[in-house]
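Justification of resources, computational component.

The compute hours requested in this renewal are based largely on the per-chain cost of generating structure records like the one below. Each record pairs the submitted sequence with a full structure-token output. That output is archived, and it is also reused by downstream analysis tasks.
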Amino acid sequence: MAERRILPVLSSASAVGVFLLYLCCFFPAALSVNVTYDRRSLIIDGQRKLLISASIHYPRSVPAMWPGLVAAAKEGGADVIESYVFWNGHEPSPGKYYFGERFNLVKFARIVQEAGMYMILRIGPFVAAEWNFGGVPAWLHYIPGTIFRTDSEPWKTHMKSFTTVIVNMMKKEKLFAPQGVLSSWRRQIENEYGDTEAAYGDGGKRYAMWAAAMALSQNIGVPWIMCQQYDAPDNVINTCNSFYCDQFSPNSVNKPKFWTENWPGWFKTFGARNPHRPPEDIAFSVARFSRKAVYHGGTNFDRTSGGPFITTSYDYDAPIDEYGLVRLPKWGHLRDLHKAIKLCEQALLYGEPTFLSLGPLQEADVFTDLYGRCAAFISNMDAENDKYVILGTYHILFPLGLSVFYQSARMDLGKADFSNQGFVDHINTTRDSTDYLWYTTSLHVDESELLGNGTYEVLVVESKGHGVHAFKPTAPSKCIWKRGKFIFQIETPIHLKPGNNEIAFLSMTVGLQNAGPLFEWTGAGLTSVKINGLRNGTVDLSSKSWVYKIGLQGENQQIYSPMNNFGWTSTSVLPKNQPLTWYKGRLWLNGKAIGRYWPRKSLSSDGCPGTCDYRGKFYPDKCNTGCGEPTQRWYHVPRSWFQPSGNTLVAFEEEGETRQGSPSRGGVSPVGLPREGSHLRHPVRQLRYPSGVCGSFLHGSCHYANSISVVQKACLSKSECSITLSRGSFGEDQCPAQSKL
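The structure output for this chain reads:
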């Protein structure tokens, strides 16, 4: 696809626009409405509508945040809030449904209604979304004969059952368009199935057609869509998901062009750099088509992150950040674009387009309706040079717009759950009830088998992920992770003793696979354990009898819950003036699961450009930040989870204090909006504009080289700080003739 910097130009009273977006679910009308579509757009009560949608996944925030998030999206120019429906959150066990707290879908929809906005409901019920197991409940994988997302009767039966539950609940609440009140106006079935359909052969084609027919049989009176479904039937609209969709066309001339996902950033994985998408590039893509996905990413609370290795933060570099605060300049940049697009609505939806060539690398798309209202999109594809055009007014077109850890301990695993000859699969055994599975066995060694003379044996372990602690006799344990390579081998020296030797492994997962063909069959856990260096050669323990324990004792006992009165013991001498050191584990505040923490650094200090050039096509690694830094340092603890006093933070630390490396000081930094009565005004004495771009501004004429380190030393981890403007604070005065106030 050609990249373009585009400039919307208005001619006449009202004009510009782009295309439509994405249809599915709710309406704030007091009366029932009729929702249809033609080749140009969605039609509501006979009028074509251009709507801008913002994605907010309700379980990734807490209910106390929902009104503020919706209000910020509306202020940013959105008409519509859209969200997936997360099956494994709503049906944690077969036939047992949950719609409380973060999963209170109806409450979220009512908040959207009260804000006077529409809502899109993406039922799926497979959602991907970097969510654990793609949103599908793990129990479904263990129903005999089930294969996800194909012509499998158990899968189709449970998928239809859950879809019907959601539809009937919304009908009961009168949330569909023909019913009035919120009026549902569009729904989605399946998600991006066209990208994987071929892997399932004829069964995949049959399933896609069945899913569409099943959705239509719900008789909700609003259109249905299927994302990335290139063979969608005539009465279901196929849509586009991508960074750019202006070249997309639906599979029928009678269907409008809908863009269901325009990613404003990208998700993060532990140990990777932080992706960043410049607002200029998003604006280019939105102006070419006009719709965004993930307006607010939120947080993968508890164990909901998928991947594997997707971070607890699902900030996504979105216009509203993880904490519910607007991200500038991205939010403001897109808000202004949305305003311009809305001015173009009539010309865009009712006018016929005309293409104009303005030069070898310049062009214009002009829409003019019957009343003479005109909207023009002017593009410059020259990567180096500005161009000047006259179209009613004078305009300048800028170029091309548009790790290894150690620990030693003696384990008390508690009572074993079962034993088995050989290895079992980690995920099939835990069934997503925990991240952890113990593998334990014993080996009897005669003294004559030991080489002696200070010679160590070597433990060789193979695993298909995601990580493993190896607890072995008289030597530190070892844990290894390989991001992006879940199958790995570790070799570590051990010292066996004559007689019985117990060897234990704690296998760990960090989020289950969430997408791809047959993703539910991706396994984890040990595949081979051998010991080299004995007099009789290599001993293979893989086929021995192994004892298994699912989860950890404290996890099973829920010692993090305020309702449980477990005794806590402290060391005889409490540490003083020592930093809080975290390596990897999980966090709870007052019994509510914050999620996994892991301040793992990205593997390389390279790959982060000092200046991000938004020109040209965007891809997730183009504008990385945070090279050589922890992927996630800060963890979102919602204000509504705090009590006035007596708050309890529980941290389960996997690695412990014997891990090699430098600790970092911990702290809690409250983030929030100004409250009523706050001081929000201050006189401006001087106004100057910085040179450069956000994240890489140029130094001024009076720059102190050590100013950043001085500010960091004085202000990091503090709620407020002050710095004396003196030569003693910053060193030699670089510009004595200039005032420092």
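The radius of gyration is 29 Å. Confidence is low (pLDDT under 50) at residues 1-31, 180-184, 399-410, 658-680.
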